[in-house]
Amino acid sequence: MLLKTIEKLKAEDHILISSYAPEEAKFYYERNPKLMFEAFIKTEQAMRGYEATGVPWKNILAYLSQPKGKALVDALHARQVMCIVYTTPAFEKINDEQERLRAYPQLIWDGADILLSDHIFEVEFTLRPLRPAKSAKQRFFKTVHSLQFKDAPPGSSRK
Questions:
Q1: Please, which residues have CB within 8 angstroms of residue 11's CB and are 6 or more apart in sequence?
Q2: Distances (CA, A) of 139 to 38, 134, 136, 147, 157
Q3: Which end of the chain is more exposed for a tag (fewer CB within 10 A), N or C?
Q4: What is the domain-level CATH number for residue 74?
Q5: Span 91-105, pLDDT tens digits
């Protein structure tokens, strides 16, 4: 059902399918090799499991949640895989705003390529200076030039 809907809407270029197990990615990839997957790769064993499926790494973004060290990130980067890190569980506990703002760039410096966060204004503001002038992934970098923190939604920590 999911695959038929994606194909009917010609949405392959706009969809990222969450794959909790290597077999799921393989199932969909064998039916449509245009699909991209957010693969839950939290261990080297999981990485090897995805590698064994035959799904090309160019079709995979790795969701690491909270990486335990740099070895897995480095191994994925060696395969040209972008790594997603979820910030909310750890960063919600940082009450000092300045400390939290310093922590986001550190994740990028430690190898995260994409941050998944509940604090989008805070993350965008903090990471904007790190954005490269030119990138092969430029089409994914969107800036809302008129966005000011005074426009932040109620409850946002950035005003």
A1: 5
A2: 19, 10, 8, 19, 28
A3: N
A4: 3.20.20.190
A5: 878 889 899 889 999
Nearest CA-CA partner of 38 in 101, 113, 139, 90: 113
Amino acid residing at 116: L
Instruction: Report residue 48 CA to chain centroid gap.
Output: 20
The answer to whether residue 157 sits within a structural domain is no
Model pLDDT for residues 28-54, shown as the tens digit of each residue: 999 999 999 999 999 999 999 999 999
Round to whole Å and give the CA distance between 127 and 53.
Answer: 35
Q: Which two tokens stand for residue 5?
A: 């809907």
Q: What pLDDT was estimated at residue 129?
A: 87
Determine, yes or no, domain membership for 156.
no
Look up the domain containing 143 and give its range: 2-151
The whole-model pTM stands at 0.79
Sheet architecture: strand order including 114-116: 16-19, 36-40, 60-65, 82-86, 114-116
How far, in Å, are 15, 48, 59 from residue 5 at the CA level?
11, 30, 19
Q: Which two tokens stand for residue 42?
A: 């939290």
